[in-house]
Specification:
CATH class of the largest domain: Alpha Beta
Radius of gyration: 20 Å
Order of helices and strands: EHEHHEHEEEEHEHEHEHEEHHH
CATH architecture of the largest domain: 3-Layer(aba) Sandwich
CATH superfamily of the largest domain: Isopropylmalate Dehydrogenase
Structural class: alpha/beta
CATH topology of the largest domain: Isopropylmalate Dehydrogenase
Distance between the termini: 24 Å
Largest sheet: 10 strands, mixed
Bound molecules: 1,4-dihydronicotinamide adenine dinucleotide
């Protein structure tokens, strides 16, 4: 039996978490969920959006899966997600972006992987005001973190038989910080028998829209990874689809790329695929390959059939109807 921390999150988090649990449990895998809350809802009780017991349970169980958590814009507390990634040294954010047949999109057969550095860059949270004149946010790029993320990307490429790694940067302008990232990347690349190149982030944005099939594994500092993840989600049908994993040496926290989508929260219309696919990544991480494949096959069949789809994919099924359909297909296999 596995014991796994589950943070349902807020906004659409509780709905997609419930759907994910139902689908995962339908595979027959034996999981005991250690359910804990974080975010604005616990601020009053614990005076922090990320109480110590939440971090402790992840440290104890080693593995967590979480729904999205709202972060106030321009004021209020620091992002729970960023803090969690730093506290647990979840240095690699792995986001596979793959087309499903049956989902309407301008592109077909997209199959690329974003590897985002997860602990530093402008997300280090070092900001200060310059009186009334302005404000300053400091971008941190270290040799150690750059080396860890480049190693992760190349090891992932080898283990998963991927053909090429591309580093994304802006070293033409940020010659020292992104320059260091690129230098370290090239050093690491020279040790592996995998094709590699690099591209500045603006050119990469255009190329991703025009010729996404040219990309395979992409590795980049935190901010570019955040932005390009959403861009790439748009290539395969939107944020409802793309999963993710925050991985460190000791712990792993699985979560979708999307946020809490407050506009559709509580309406039973969110697409739970992204979190369900994050659970597929989690099952593989646990070595439960058959159960992961079972979910993936069922999702593929539901999309190919195209009759039961949520609103973001042009359908009119509720979150619950879509979830039940995945479970029905799984049972009938
Ligand atoms: P968002 O990802 O929540 O929403 C962007 C758009 O995608 C909206 O139109 C939304 O309705 C749609 N969308 C997202 N997920 C969907 C799903 N599963 N099914 C159907 N449609 C979906 O991004 P936004 O609006 O910028 O952020 C909202 C909040 O979420 C913010 O407070 C942000 O800080 C937080 N956030 C949290 C993350 C996390 O917990 N890992 C990640 C990203 C954002």
């Amino acid at each position: 039996m596995y014991k796994i921390t589950l943070i349902p999150g807020d906004g659409i988090g509780p709905e997609v978490s419930k759907a994910m649990r139902k689908v995962v449990e339908a595979t027959g895998v034996n999981i005991e969920w250690d359910i804990v809350e974080a975010g604005e809802g616990v601020m009053e009780e614990f005076s922090t959006p990320l109480p110590q017991h939440v971090i402790d349970t992840i440290k104890k169980n080693k593995i967590a899966i979480k729904g999205p958590i709202t972060t106030p814009v321009g004021k209020g507390f620091r992002s729970v997600n960023v803090t969690l990634r730093q506290e647990l040294d979840l240095y690699a954010n792995l986001r596979p972006v793959k087309s499903f047949k049956g989902i309407k999109s301008r592109y077909e057969d997209i199959d690329l992987v974003i590897v985002r550095e997860n602990t530093e860059d402008l997300y280090a949270g070092i900001e200060h005001k310059l009186g009334n004149y302005g404000a300053e946010s400091i971008k941190i790029i270290t040799r150690e973190a750059s080396e860890k993320i480049a190693e992760f990307a190349f090891k992932y490429a080898v283990d998963n038989k991927r053909k090429k790694v591309t580093a994304i940067h802006k070293a033409n302008i940020m010659k020292l910080s992104d320059g260091l990232f690129l230098d370290v990347y090239r050093n690491v690349a020279s040790k592996y028998d995998v094709d590699y190149d690099d591209m500045i982030v603006d050119a990469a944005s255009m190329n991703l829209v025009m010729t996404p099939e040219k990309f395979d594994v992409m590795v980049m500092p935190n901010l570019y990874g955040d932005i390009l993840s959403d861009l790439c989600a748009g290539l395969v049908g939107g944020l409802g689809i793309v999963p993710g994993a925050n991985i460190g040496k000791e712990y792993a926290v699985f979560e979708a790329v999307h946020g809490s989508a407050p506009q559709i929260a509580g309406k039973n219309m969110a697409n739970p695929t992204a979190l369900i696919q994050s659970a597929v990544m989690m099952l593989r991480y646990l070595g439960e390959y058959d159960k992961a494949a079972k979910i993936e096959d069922s999702l593929s069949k539901v999309f190919l059939d195209g009759k039961v789809l949520t609103a973001d994919l042009g359908g009119n099924a509720t979150t619950e109807e879509f979830t039940n359909e995945i479970c029905r297909v799984m049972e009938n296999k």
